[in-house]
């Protein structure tokens, strides 16, 4: 054992090997590559020690070589460790709250400060926004935070998004940024990114970043814009130059339909789902060619405008909005054929009247509906009815009102009775229903009444285990 540690290089070599093995074992092999590197460094130390012993017979020369190699060894490890720990110190204005950010790669703006002793200190201006010509990839990806009065900031109090980007859409440029959110929410940086895109489009600014995949692309129906889950609050100008037939902006932070969209006269399909929109945007009545619109999972609970001008609109989606009352103005849409109201708090069919008689698809699953009441008489043109996950316990005689029905999804309801009048649904092709409370005779009768329909029975117990 003494021969293994009788020189500084051997001691350092043994430590490196031990640490390498320990890292590999404690991480269950996850860091085996690092462990092998350290083991290799340790073995190299023994080889260097052996070489020094072999070529230096003079004891003084031997120890001089040991000291020099040991110093180089320690210095190399120190530099490697500090390189690994290289970081940015982001300094915010004292008591700053809101959205801050660093926008990278904009030509003509100052570069970020040089890294000094493995630390780059970045001072955020009072407005919280720093624009630089430095590219993001030239900056260390480890950050530490502080206020300008030198007080440290708990990282848990900051939401840091190091991968924020905005496609400028009307050009092939994009904006890359780091976003920081401290306590209160705002969209200051996102709005400035949009303004920069406008300046880039008018050749006043230049971004060093280019979009690999354009946000506007084409298919057999024409041009479409799809920007999902981008945390957007605004759109750049110039969209009216494109003949877009579809725009999907699901999962962003819009609180209204952007004005740029209202200028696109060719638009047929608009999806604004999962955005914090509280008031229904009545200005969409300007979109005369609009065929379908979705405001699912927003905050809209009322509609206070006449929608009768939307005479091309056929599909309307207001699902997942917690609606306890049906917005009556939906009925003013003259040619509505598809209505989705699933995942709300509706309790009955009382909202249905003759103004919804053109409906061909009605999506009401995951509500609190307890019965299929007499309003079914207004649904004579209905082809698809989705009622699963409600509280309906019987299929009543008035089911025969749905004479054009082709698909009925009524599973996950405690159905105990099925009226023989269901036999009048001669066009019904598919039906799915729970059989928890049905007897074998009920099931046999249903098959006899609907000989041309594919009936799928399931129990809730089986469904939950699948």
UniProtKB/TrEMBL annotation:
Transmembrane segments: 12-41, 61-81
SUPFAM superfamilies: L domain-like
Keywords of this entry: Leucine-rich repeat, Membrane, Repeat, Transmembrane, Transmembrane helix
Record bears the keyword Transmembrane helix: yes
Entry keyword annotation includes Transmembrane helix: yes
Protein name: Leucine-rich repeat domain-containing protein
Species per Swiss-Prot/TrEMBL record: Sphingobacterium suaedae
Origin organism lineage: Bacteria, Pseudomonadati, Bacteroidota, Sphingobacteriia, Sphingobacteriales
């Amino acid at each position: 054992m003494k021969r293994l540690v009788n020189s500084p290089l051997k001691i350092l070599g043994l430590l490196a090997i031990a640490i390498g093995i320990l890292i590999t074992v404690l991480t269950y092999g996850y860091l085996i590559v690092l462990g092998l590197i350290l083991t290799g460094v340790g073995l190299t130390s023994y080889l260097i020690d052996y070489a020094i012993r072999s070529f230096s017979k003079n004891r003084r020369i031997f120890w001089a070589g040991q000291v020099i190699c040991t110093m180089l060894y320690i210095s190399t490890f120190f530099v490697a460790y500090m390189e690994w720990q290289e970081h940015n110190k982001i300094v915010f204005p004292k008591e700053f709250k809101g959205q801050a950010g660093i926008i990278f790669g904009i030509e003509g703006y100052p570069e970020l400060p040089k890294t000094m002793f493995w630390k780059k200190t970045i001072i955020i201006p009072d407005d919280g926004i720093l624009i630089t010509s430095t590219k993001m990839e030239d900056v260390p990806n480890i950050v530490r935070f502080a206020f300008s009065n030198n007080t440290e900031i708990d990282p848990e109090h900051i939401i840091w998004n190091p991968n924020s980007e905005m496609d400028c859409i009307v050009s092939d440029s994009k904006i890359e940024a780091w976003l920081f959110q401290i306590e209160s929410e705002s969209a200051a940086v996102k709005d400035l990114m949009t303004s920069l895109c406008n300046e880039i489009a008018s050749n006043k600014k230049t971004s060093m970043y280019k979009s690999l995949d354009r946000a506007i692309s084409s298919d057999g129906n024409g041009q479409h814009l799809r920007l999902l889950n981008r945390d957007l609050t605004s759109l750049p100008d110039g969209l009216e130059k494109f003949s877009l037939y579809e725009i999907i902006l699901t999962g962003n932070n819009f609180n209204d339909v952007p004005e740029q969209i209202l200028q696109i006269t060719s638009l047929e399909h608009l999806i604004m789902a999962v955005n914090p929109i509280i008031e229904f945007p009545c200005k969409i009545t300007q979109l005369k060619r609009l065929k379908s619109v979705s405001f699912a999972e927003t905050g809209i609970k009322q509609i206070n405008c006449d929608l009768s001008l939307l005479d091309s609109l056929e599909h309307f989606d207001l699902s997942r909005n917690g609606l306890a009352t049906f917005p009556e103005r939906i009925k003013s849409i003259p040619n509505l054929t598809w209505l989705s109201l699933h995942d709300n708090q509706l309790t009955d069919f009382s909202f249905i009247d003759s103004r919804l008689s053109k409906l061909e698809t009605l999506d009401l699953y995951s509500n609190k509906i307890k019965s299929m009441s007499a309003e079914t008489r207004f649904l004579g043109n209905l082809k698809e009815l989705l009622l699963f996950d409600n509280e309906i316990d019987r299929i009543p005689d008035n089911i025969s009102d749905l004479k054009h029905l082709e698909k009925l999804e009524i599973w996950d309801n405690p159905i105990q009775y099925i009226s023989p009048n269901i036999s009048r649904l001669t066009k019904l092709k598919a039906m799915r229903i729970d059989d928890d409370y049905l007897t074998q005779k009920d099931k046999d009768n249903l098959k006899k009444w609907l000989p041309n329909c594919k009936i799928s029975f399931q129990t809730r117990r089986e469904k939950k285990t699948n």
